[in-house]
Design brief:
The chain has about 475 residues and is α/β, with parallel strands linked by helices. Helix content is about 40%, strand content about 20%. The chain contains 18 helices and 18 strands. The strands form 3 sheets. A 9-stranded mixed sheet has the order 3-4-5-2-1-6-7-11-12, with helices on both faces. It has a 6-stranded parallel sheet with strand order 15-14-13-16-17-18, with helices on both faces. The chain has a 3-stranded antiparallel sheet with strand order 8-10-9. It is elongated, with a radius of gyration of 23 Å. About 50% of the residues are buried. The structure holds adenosine-5'-diphosphate.
Length: about 475
């Protein structure tokens, strides 16, 4: 049995801003059958404190943690066995977990998550009420100082660390003047340590000092080592090439259970989605998008390619919110074309009706570490049309000549990520849609594609076992 402490700044269903929370929330349960016992260390945000059942205070060495008293509590929250760092001066606040009421980062975010990392290193060193983790699974910059602190506490030879990158855009940069305040050794403030252009970079500290690194898809693991995707850290990542792995995220199979058993039954959901969105059937596929509207998601590219879909009798239903300009552009497209329907907002229930009722789901991202909606689509026989990047490249079997001939295709991959290529892909989608045999075969392939956590949990378990250090 490998014991693993997952160190996460968010965890579904308790607190969530992105995919990191889904992974942190799903892995402990998924790993249970794989010889791995994972417990989770979380900050004591109000949402976590109020969800915590049967808390027991654990004795620990820190009387004062980054400017205030801190308790370490052990209990159950969100169905998981958790340790909660109850430090009111750091976490007991109204507002979002990373942002104050002014919409800006809390000024003491560096200390807030240094404290989390310090407590993780303390648990690794001293144990927590008799439980001793052999591996620390660290998520993003918020947990990335842990390997340095482990060295300071003298336990880096004993406890292994895996740092998983969910979003390299957030790097935890801080002014060098905070070195002391963050309890960091001045000797590490160098170009091959955690210094980044004159600042402290928490993420870089993890990339340099963690035993192993991973990210959320094999393709993104390679892309991150290029200047185009590495956001300034590609050089560091190249230097750690041998220690980097990509492991795909899974989806929650219970939450995303299709509401139909057969493809014939799926047709009813397509019909009712058309009715709900006011989209008449013009003989082409009903394409759906469920997405944040940001430049990453490439929806401007889709917008420019849209006339091709409409010309072939296809329609687009979009559910999303984000950049005001993109919201407006899609609303204008809706006003101009009878084949376009747009719902601006975040609506979980509607997203399920979109995924169930769509014929195809479009994901035109410029980059995509893993991506989830294409996985929801696969499970529902809603064929994904995706940009060839990151996790999208790893989860869709393309309907090229070989894929169709071998009868294994599940969707369409678009390359390069341009309007021309997207126009071509939408044309191809409509052509395949008219060939019922091929379309049906692709839907069946898609629905059989494994999209749960089973495969990835086994991969994480093997990795943890591999890096566990001899006692
Ligand atoms: P990212 O984390 O970059 O936004 P992912 O595809 O990994 O992209 O995950 C996005 C998640 O957010 C999916 O679960 C998707 O269904 C959900 N989502 C995005 N926009 C909306 C929306 N407007 N309404 C409901 N769910 C949404």
């Amino acid at each position: 049995m490998t014991t693993v402490l997952s160190v996460a700044s968010e965890c579904a269903p308790l607190v969530k801003t992105g995919g990191l929370a889904d992974v942190a929330g799903a892995l402990p349960t998924a790993l249970a059958g794989h010889g791995t016992e994972m417990r989770t260390l979380l900050p004591g945000y109000p949402a976590v404190m109020s969800a915590l059942e049967e808390p027991v205070a654990i004795v620990h060495r820190e009387k004062n943690l980054f400017g205030g008293p801190a308790r370490l509590l052990h209990g159950i929250a969100g169905g998981l066995e958790v340790y909660v760092l109850d430090a009111p001066h750091l976490y007991e606040r109204k507002g979002a977990i990373y942002l104050g009421p002014d919409g800006k980062d809390w000024p003491d975010n560096p200390e807030r998550f240094a404290a989390l990392s310090w407590m993780a290193a303390t648990i690794a060193t001293d144990g927590a009420a008799g439980w001793e983790p052999q591996v620390l699974h660290l998520h993003d910059w918020q947990a990335a100082l842990t390997p340095i602190y482990l060295r300071q506490l003298g336990s880096a030879d004993r406890v292994a660390t895996l740092l998983t990158i969910h979003n390299i855009a957030f790097q935890g940069l801080t002014a060098a003047t905070r070195l002391k305040a963050l309890n960091l050794p001045a000797s590490g403030f160098t170009a091959d340590g955690f210094e980044y252009y004159g600042k402290i970079s928490a993420l870089k500290a993890g990339l340099v000092y963690a035993d192993k690194l991973s990210t959320v898809s094999p393709s993104y693991a390679i892309e991150l080592m290029t200047p185009e995707f590495g956001m300034g850290l590609d050089g560091v990542l190249r230097s750690r090439r041998a220690d980097m792995t990509g492991i795909l995220n899974g989806i929650d199979l219970d939450a995303w259970q299709p509401p139909f058993k057969t493809l014939r039954a799926k047709a009813k959901f397509t019909k009712s989605l058309r009715q709900e969105m006011g989209l008449p059937d013009a003989g082409g596929p009903l394409c759906v998008v469920v997405s944040r509207l940001t430049s990453q998601k490439g929806l401007d590219i889709l917008l420019a390619a849209l006339p091709r879909l409409l010309a072939e009798g296809g329609q687009l239903a979009l559910l999303g919110s984000g950049d005001a300009e993109l919201e407006k552009a899609f609303q204008e497209a809706e006003a101009r074309h009878s084949g376009v329907a747009v719902k601006i907002g975040y609506d979980e229930a509607l997203s399920h009706r979109f995924i169930a009722g769509g014929d195809a789901i479009l994901v035109p991202s410029r980059f995509e570490p893993c991506g989830l909606t294409q996985l929801y689509g696969l499970r529902h026989g809603t064929l994904p049309v995706v940009s060839l990047t990151g996790g999208l490249a790893d989860t869709v079997v393309p309907a090229n000549a070989a894929g169709i001939w071998a009868g294994v295709a599940t969707g369409i991959q678009v390359h390069p990520i341009t309007t021309d290529a997207w126009e071509h892909a939408l044309g191809q989608l409509c052509a395949i849609y008219r060939q019922h045999d091929i379309w049906n075969r692709m839907q069946k392939n898609a629905m059989r594609h494994p999209v749960g956590w089973e495969v990835s949990a086994a991969a994480y378990a093997a990795l943890f076992k591999d890096i566990e250090k001899a006692a």
